[in-house]
Amino acid sequence: MNQLVELKSIKKKYGKKTILYDMSLRLEEKQVIAVLGGNGSGKSTFLRMAAGVERPDSGQVVYADKNIRIGYVPERFPNYLRFTPNEYLHYTGRIGGISEAELKQRISSLLHRFQLDKWSDRRISTLSKGNIQKVGIIQAILPQPELLVLDEPLSGLDFSAQQELLLILDELKERGTSILLTYHEAPIFEEVVDQAYYIKDGQLTEEKLVEKDAVKVIEVKGLTDIDVQEWNELINKERRENSLLLYVNSENSDQILSRILELQGSIEYVGNIDYKIE
Q1: Domains defined for the chain, CATH in brackets
Q2: Residue 186 — very low, low, confident or very high, per pLDDT cuts 50/70/90?
Q3: How far, in Å, CA of 186 to CA of 207, rounded?
Q4: What angle do the packed helices 85-95 and 129-141 form, to 10 degrees?
Q5: Which parts of the chain fold into alpha helices (H)?
Q6: Which of 47, 98, 135, 203 keeps 20 to 30 A from 36, CA to CA?
Q7: CA separation (Å) from 246 to 188, 235, 239, 269?
Q8: What are phi and psi of 248, to 5 degrees?
Q9: Total-model pTM
C-alpha cells in the first residue's frame, strides 16, 4: 500500500497546557484508523491537524499529494446555517470543483440514502441534531475524498443512518479512500477499523484489536436506561436521540426480546454485528 498522509512528531499547546506530545502516525491508502481517548485527550485536535484545518506548534503533516481531496466532519457541525441542505451542498460542491451535472446527481443520491429528501429545502438551522449531522457527513463525502476525517460521526444518528454510513465507508474504502476517525462507545465501527490507537497523557499508543464475536444488536423505543439497568445479559447499551441500542450475545437475545415486549417497548431493529469482547 502507498502512504497517503503522515503526521510527524506533532506537538500542540493551548496556552500553557500541552495537549499532544511528539505524536506520529502514518495512514496508508484504503486504510481505516481509529484514534480513541477520553474527553479532553486531544483526539479532536489531532484530527483537525490531519485534516489540515489546524496547524501543529511543531512537527509536520505530510500528504502524498499537495492537491489531495480531504473530507472533514467536525465534532460539532454548525447548526446556525441559514442555507438549506440543497443550497449548502451545492455551494460546497462547486467550491470543490465538481461539475454541475455530477453535483446534482451526487447530492440527490446522498440525500436519498440518508433519508433527507423531504428536508432538503428546509433551513439547516431548523433541522434536528441527527439531520444536521447527516448534512455534515454528506458534505464531507460529496467530493469523493482521498482522505476522510470523521470526528464522532455517529452523534445524533439513528441506527438506520449508522448502517448507511457504514455501507458508504466500505464503498469509499474500496475506491481507495483512507479514513481517520474517532468515536465514543460505538462498537458498530469496529467491523471496519483496521487499526486503533489510544491517546492518553498526550501520547499515542497502539490499541490491540482482539478477536470479534458476532452478537445481536437490538434497537428499541419506549424504554429507559433504568428499565434495562439490571439486565446482566447485556454486553453494552447506547442511548440514541429517540431509541436505545442493546448489545447481547445471540444465545440471550430471545430472552431480551421477551423482556422488551413485556415492558411494552417497540422493537425497531434486530440484527447481527461484529463486536469486540474483551
Answers
A1: 3-207 (3.40.50.300), 212-276 (3.30.70.980)
A2: low
A3: 15
A4: 20
A5: 43-51, 85-95, 100-113, 129-141, 159-175, 225-228, 253-262
A6: 135
A7: 12, 8, 9, 10
A8: -150, 145
A9: 0.75
Q: How is residue 83 annotated by DSSP?
A: S
**pLDDT tier for residue 241 given thresholds of 50, 70 and 90:** confident
Q: Is 115 helix (H, G, I), strand (E, B) or coil?
A: coil
Which among 127, 123, 102 is positioned nearest to 114, based on CA atoms? 127
Each residue's pLDDT tens digit, 73-131: 998 887 778 889 999 999 999 988 899 999 999 999 999 999 999 999 999 999 988 89
Residue with cell 447481547: 248
Report the length, in residues, of the chain.
278
Could you give the 3-state DSSP secondary structure of residue 66? coil
Q: Is 239 exposed, middle or buried (0-12, 13-18, 19+ CB in 10 A)?
A: exposed
